[in-house]
């Protein structure tokens, strides 16, 4: 998708294996579309037989007319052999990365290789790095503390907490019960981050793309608001297909889950945006008559609950669901997991989000209800991902996911040591389940800045008939300037209530266009 800039934009392409960089600066009086830099997809043929790494870098840079810089100790005495014919430069650099273990420094948004450990020295590597899960505990920085409480940010129902890695800048991580190890997914506005002992691994996840290469890092120190953990294993997946910051509207750098939950009783106060972590031995389990306590079952360190849903045909079906704080929707269901689980008669094609392998598509519709203990929540909106995507990662007896649109209606207590989850209903439990009734998918191309772009307009939707188009830049919504809005504000407005009138001014090809539409339910 093309995005528009204001005043000036600096685009830096940084190669991951070498300190090769290109800066493209574009300035204009009016917003101009920014084209994706094609450099990394340009082809090169290169042959080297036992040639110095320095010379190979120089040849690549001369070929593409690039500037570059590196630590002389990095390349000193390094000899490599390559025989690559007409491949993209990203292929060449990725091959170099896969052939070596790396230690990274990221300073001023430039990725630097600090060390170069050949694969044949992997035994030494494994001796240096501690990947023992049982020892990677989070502890209170003050040993006398019994609990810690801190604020979190929220966007699209997701919990976002501050994290420091090896005394880095403050990073924003999504609290995601579906994640085993902390994962770094992107690095917007990060000037300082050190990751130790990077080792290539292959990962897969939901999305359109193939499996991709991640980097496993050990011996990291992670700090979170009064908590500290040493020797943490961290995975790094930097992919253009997984840019979640633009979808959420604020800089997000990664995900963290099991390694934090496993050591504490974790209380989530969605109404007041507060997170409390307590040592299990000091936690007082005060259960009142409104609390719903459900057992947690763990598989591959992920928490599951068993409950019952009512289909849109009023048929009761027992289901096994992953409890996932990192899923924005109420429920995801796989139609392949049970013959009785099918698409509701009324449904829409929908963009569901982004996975590690790219965009997720599927359908959305309402089912009759879901039981949460003795409480039934009526007509929740369910996402049905494309079956071929879900089948890649879902086990035979899992039916889907219980997500944050349901969890946010409760005061939630995860007790991993005690293998249970406690749900205390709040005033939100009576709220209707709504969805975006405009037909618009909107992103924030510069996360944290008030720039909002229309990514997609659903055919025959209210926004479609109002004449809105892809790549329109939103200037105001209901007479409120984009400068006073967040992406979360806009999304909440578009799913607020049926028959609400929405006025909107957009910028298209330098021209301001005013239009309006009314939110309409399809199901």
Automatic annotation (TrEMBL):
Name of the molecule in the record: Aspartyl protease family protein
Endpoints of the signal sequence: 1-28
Biological process according to GO: proteolysis
Species assigned in the record: Gaoshiqia sediminis
SMART domains: PDZ
Domain PDZ: 436-510
Keywords: Hydrolase, Protease, Signal
InterPro entries tied to this protein: PDZ, PDZ_6, PDZ_sf, Peptidase_aspartic_dom_sf
GO molecular function, one term: peptidase activity
Pfam families: Asp_protease_2, PDZ_6
């Amino acid at each position: 998708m093309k995005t528009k800039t204001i005043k000036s934009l600096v685009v830096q392409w940084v190669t991951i294996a070498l300190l090769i960089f290109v800066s493209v600066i574009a300035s204009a009086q009016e917003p101009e579309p920014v084209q994706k830099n094609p450099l990394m997809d340009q082809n090169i043929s290169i042959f080297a037989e036992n040639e110095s790494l320095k010379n190979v870098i120089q040849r690549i840079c001369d070929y593409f007319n690039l500037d570059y810089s590196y630590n002389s100790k990095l390349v000193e005495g390094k000899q490599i052999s390559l025989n690559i014919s007409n491949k993209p430069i990203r292929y060449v650099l990725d091959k170099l990365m896969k052939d070596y273990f790396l230690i990274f420094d990221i300073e001023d948004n430039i990725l630097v290789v600090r060390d170069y450990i050949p694969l044949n020295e992997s035994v030494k590597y494994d001796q240096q790095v501690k990947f023992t899960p049982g020892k990677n505990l989070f502890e209170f920085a003050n040993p006398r503390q019994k609990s810690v409480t801190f604020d979190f940010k929220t966007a699209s129902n997701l919990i976002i907490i501050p994290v420091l890695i090896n005394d880095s800048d403050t990073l924003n991580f999504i609290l995601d019960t579906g994640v085993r190890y902390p994962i770094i997914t992107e690095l917007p506005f990060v000037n300082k981050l050190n990751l130790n002992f990077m080792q290539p691994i292959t990962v897969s996840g939901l999305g359109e793309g193939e499996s991709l290469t991640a980097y496993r890092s050990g011996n990291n120190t992670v700090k979170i608001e009064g908590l500290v953990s040493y020797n943490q294993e961290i995975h790094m997946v930097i992919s253009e297909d997984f840019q979640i910051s633009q979808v959420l509207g604020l800089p997000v750098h990664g995900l963290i889950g099991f390694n934090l939950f496993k050591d504490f009783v974790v209380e989530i106060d969605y109404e007041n945006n507060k997170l409390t972590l307590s040592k299990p031995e000091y936690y007082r389990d005060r259960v009142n008559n409104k609390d719903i306590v459900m057992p947690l079952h763990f598989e591959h360190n992920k928490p599951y609950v068993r409950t019952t849903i009512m289909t849109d045909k009023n048929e009761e079906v027992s289901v096994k669901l992953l409890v996932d704080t990192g899923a924005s929707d109420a429920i995801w269901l796989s139609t392949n997991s049970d013959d009785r689980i099918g698409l509701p008669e009324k449904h829409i094609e929908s963009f569901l989000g982004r996975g590690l392998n790219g965009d997720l598509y599927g359908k959305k519709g309402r089912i009759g209800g879901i039981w949460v203990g003795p409480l039934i929540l009526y007509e929740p909106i369910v996402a049905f991902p494309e079956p071929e995507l879900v089948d890649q990662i879902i086990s035979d007896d899992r039916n889907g996911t219980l997500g944050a649109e349901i969890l946010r209606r409760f005061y939630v207590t995860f007790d991993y040591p005690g293998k249970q989850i406690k749900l205390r209903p709040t005033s939100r439990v009576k709220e209707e389940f709504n969805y975006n009734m405009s037909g618009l998918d909107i992103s924030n191309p510069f996360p944290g800045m008030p720039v909002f772009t229309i990514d997609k307009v659903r055919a025959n939707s209210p926004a479609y008939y109002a004449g809105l188009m892809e790549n329109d830049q939103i200037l105001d919504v209901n007479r409120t300037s984009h400068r006073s809005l967040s992406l979360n504000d806009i999304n909440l407005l578009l799913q607020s209530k049926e028959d609400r009138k929405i006025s909107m001014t957009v910028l298209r090809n330098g021209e301001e266009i005013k239009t309006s539409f009314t939110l309409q339910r399809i199901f």
